[in-house]
Amino acid sequence: MNIAFHGAARTVTGSKHLISLISGTKILLDCGLFQGMGESTEKLNSYFGFKPSEINFVILSHAHIDHCGLLPRLVAEGFKGNIFSTAATMDLARILLMDSAKIHTQDAEYANRKLSAGEDPQEPLYTEEDVVETIGRFKVVDYNHPFDISPEVNILFTDAGHIVGSAAVHLKLNENGKTTSLTFSGDVGRYTDLLLKSPQTFPQADYILMESTYGDSLHKDLEPTDNILLEIIRQTCIIKKGKVIIPAFSVGRTQEILYALNGLELKNQLPDIPYYVDSPLSLQATQVLKNHPEVYNNGVKEVMKVDADPFSFKGLKFIESVQESKALNNDNRPCVIISASGMAEGGRVRHHIRNTVSNNKNTILLVGYCAPESLGGELLAGNKSVYLFRENYQVQAEIRSIRSMSAHGDYEDLLQFLSCQDPAAVKRLFLVHGEYEVQQHFAQKLKDKGFKQVSIPEYHQQFDL
């Protein structure tokens, strides 16, 4: 058998890893959209590196768009097989992919309004109809229940603790009377996550595909998240009379922020100002999380003994219409606006940043990973100006970040995730979903732990197993 890495190879988006068995069976682990890659993003998303019609199965680790966002394109180009995931991942994928299809359709319509004579019209990457067909191909597999998807392939999902429904994927691949065990970590969560259970241990693997987003970082903040949020809100909204803009992914990060703010209210510390979640998708994602309380950790379960809804508090309003969103930019009163996307690469948050970034009374608070080329990455890097809506804006607002809110584990979490494995029994460990320099540092940490064969695949690189 062999494995080829068609995304998340020396970068953190576009997760796609293709396993090909001697029999001809092809298994695709994730089918993610490339995001935040600058001018090359469109080209990367238009070429798979393999024929979708030849794929037999897709196994989806979780519903973040950089892991599932090209599934409708895969279906549109000929994939006819099943997509295996947890129940919560299917629920999230449905709303995220439908939202993504709407964005692609709107982008194509906008581009076509500016066509020059003789230019071909732009087609969306995929449509809502493609999403409907894609969701119809999902098959749910429960955590911790081994399941045969074919005589050659058995899958086991264990909780990865990253977002609701996220799983590490464990395969038993049977060829010529020999069984090979392969683990794909998906994205690994924190062992101190605000909401979710810790990642589970898993059986010994022969080969491991390991994410490495924060393979050289520790998510250590001097204070708990709620204390940092309180300090920023007081300084910005109460003292400077400004706005706090929080670019936050609709899935996971938004719910963590709401939970932390709710905790401040329970302690009677939450400042009495408006709090807006300006993302219809975030409302739907929050409901999905509420529908799957089995993923909550013990801390959340304790809070729910005194507060039935740990994601709601006084002053909170979900914004749905475009008109309401625009009105926020014309309202100069102090407030907190939580809006997608987390890297500030698209969505309503870019309008809020444009409206606030050049005023020093405001704060833009980054609460997760931002690719270096993304708007969020430029702000974190300390750029003095940013390019938004075809104009340059001076960065006068205060730029802050909360490292501890990342849904990705740091290198201590990643090493703890692997601590259930005997390094001597792992034939090769592949690092995926990370920047190359970070992966090189993490590879050395893994070798220090006894993992002798650590590889960092290049884009489209293939390995025989």
Key terms:
single chain; 465 residues; alpha/beta; Rossmann fold; 2 domains; 30% helix; 22% strand; RNA endonuclease activity
DSSP summary, beta strand count: 22
Described by strand count, sense and barrel closure, the largest sheet is: 7 strands, mixed
Overall residue-averaged pLDDT value: 94
Helix-strand makeup class? alpha/beta
End-to-end separation: 6 Å
Describe this structure in words.
Pfam families: Beta-Casp (PF10996), Lactamase_B_6 (PF16661), RMMBL (PF07521). GO terms for molecular function: hydrolase activity; RNA endonuclease activity. It comes from Pedobacter antarcticus 4BY. This protein is of the alpha/beta class. The chain has two domains: 274 residues, Metallo-beta-lactamase, Chain A; 181 residues, Rossmann fold, CATH 3.40.50.10890. The chain is built from 14 helices and 22 strands. The strands form four sheets. It has a seven-stranded mixed beta sheet. Strand 9 and strand 10 form a beta hairpin. The termini are close together. The mean pLDDT is 94.
